[in-house]
Amino acid sequence: MEETGRPLMSAGTSYEALSVETLPDRLKGLAALAGKVGADSGTWQVQEVGDGNLNLVFIVIGPTGKAVVKQALPYVRLVGDSWPLPLYRAFYEYHALTRQAARDPGSVPEIFHFDEAQALIVMEYLSPHVILRRKLIAGEKVDGLADFLGRFCARTAFRGSELSMKSGDKKADVGLFAGNVDIPAITEALVFTDPYYSAEMNHHTEGLAPVVDRLQSDVALKVKVQQALQRFVSNTETMVHGDLHSGSIMSTDRESRVIDPEFAQYGPMGFDIGMLCANFLMAYFSQPAHRGGELEAYQSWILDVIEEVCSTFETEFRHLWATERTGILYPASLFEDQGHDSTPACDAVLSGIWHDAWTVCGIEMHRRCLSLAHNADFEDIADPAARAPLEARNLLMGAELIHTAETLADARAVCALAREFNRKDVL
Ligand code: SR1
Ligand code: MG
Prior knowledge:
The protein is an alpha+beta fold. It has helices at 23-27, 31-37, 89-103, 132-138, 145-159, 167-177, 182-191, 209-216, 219-234, 271-286, 295-323, 343-370, 376-379, 384-404, 411-423; strands at 45-48, 55-62, 65-72, 75-76, 80-84, 111-115, 120-124, 130-131, 238-240, 249-251, 256-258, 265-267. It folds into two domains: 23-124, 2-Layer Sandwich (Phosphorylase Kinase, domain 1), CATH 3.30.200.20; 130-422, Aminoglycoside 3'-phosphotransferase, Chain: A, domain 2 (Alpha-Beta Complex), CATH 3.90.1200.10. The protein is globular. The chain binds 5-S-methyl-5-thio-alpha-D-ribofuranose and magnesium ion.
């Protein structure tokens, strides 16, 4: 380890990116992989299926099973080797997955092997799961989705904080994840900063310029976004997934898992649920270009999911507050043991979480249309003339959320706002 606590990925290690051709020979000695797919690497079929912005993802199919091999590249895949990116992100992804598995059992893929030098994780192949974003674009519903996601966000938020953890353990973990510098820096720039000025990598759909100008000249908005960034970089409340969008969730029609936590860091408890809700709202606003007759019903289902994710989060968080409050924060010795109800304290903590969540939600709605790494919900709309008005609704609702985050009643109010913006002809 370096002094920073960051894992050492230095000269002397022999990192080499895998390819479909080299994988069987290079990984044939790996018992964890051979145990899953079969020992004879000559029979393995390998496909590279990575469609994200950063990594290689291989599916290895053998006579006895399938497994996923995920390997970090030393640069941003989306951009190329002109943007180097440390391999150590695989180390944080591995540690984040183990913590998420402990804090919400069954919520993430099982890990079979981690190789730090090769920045490589061998993990469970999820089948017949597909990326949730693709299902939302295709108009498919997922049973139990909101319950699963609301519980995941509440459990990881609560159990990764000093509400639950021993203070020393929490500080040690904050120290460990503090080494993940370059990956959160992407979020600090692409999510919180670039959308609000003409950053080099920004691009937006033709026709959106009046809306973009309006957002970028709104000083009060920029102040609120910078305040949110300040909380994101300096508030280490819990270990956040850090990139919890619908491309980081895989679902069947009744079962879901969260994947891809390489952006994990200790940050505000409202961050993940805010980003998640933004991605459902973008799915909602993009639907008119993807659906025919079932448009209204499907859009309503998406809003129901948002409301239920948030109500499940609240219920689960309050349940954990009542049953697992074992950390230094709001101890029973100060409340229940004195005959004092701690509900007002829980209300206050939740109120802070929702303030952060709705602000992050608005910011994520902005960045996916304005800076690098747009999302397929809008990008798959081939005709810019059809895309721009839908993105404009999304952008203006994002601004409204950021401005009103502190006073928004609840997710129902947010969904009412979405219905209102969905009727607006903004352009
Ligand atoms: C350069 S990375 C761009 C985006 O891809 C990741 O999935 C994160 O969302 C990041 O912001
Ligand atoms: Mg990702």
